[in-house]
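#onboarding

Welcome to the new folks! Below is a worked example of what a typical request in this channel looks like: someone posts a single protein sequence, and someone else replies with the predicted structure as tokens. Don't worry about understanding the tokens yet, we'll cover that in week two.

Example request:
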Amino acid sequence: RKNCLKIFMKKLFLLAILTFLFLITNAQKYFELTPDGFKASNNKEFIVVDAPNMSPSAIYNMLETGLISVFPPAHSTLNKETDTRFSITSVARELFRINAGLGMQYIMDMEFNVVIDIKEGKYRIVAPTISHLGTLANYRISRMVVYGDPKVYKDYRKNQFIFNFKDRTIQNNEAKTAIENYINNVVKKIVNISKANEDW
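Example response:
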């Protein structure tokens, strides 16, 4: 019985690993964070979502309804700039932490912006931009930069820079991963607004 249990546990463990690897390799990564900001595949500044047989006004109405669930009003501002463009400012809270010395940590929040443009039968999500990365609850104090000259941020520690200014390598991979995961999850929800209505 013990041998059978061991074999079963090994198989279960192997299945868990394979499932995890499958989810990783099949996860959609729409944007990657670089020293130059978010970039889509082929270094593009946007991704395009198909909305077949839909007029711009129909897509606009679909997005106006769907974006409410993606960006809760309590933490977001949805601006309807024109009949074919939305701009959204939103806040992500407690994405990750960074060491602040003497047993202290900064809890990192992020304010970001997303622009969505609409055309006949499609809409595009422009690469999001980070407008603030720090402790938003504490008088909006900046605690981190994606990419910047340390001479400008003289009081900052190494782990407060996501990318090295000289060689553009990653200095804080945990921060980069947490930001990318959050943004890509938001983008996935925006993409799925069209998929939920593809029978229209």
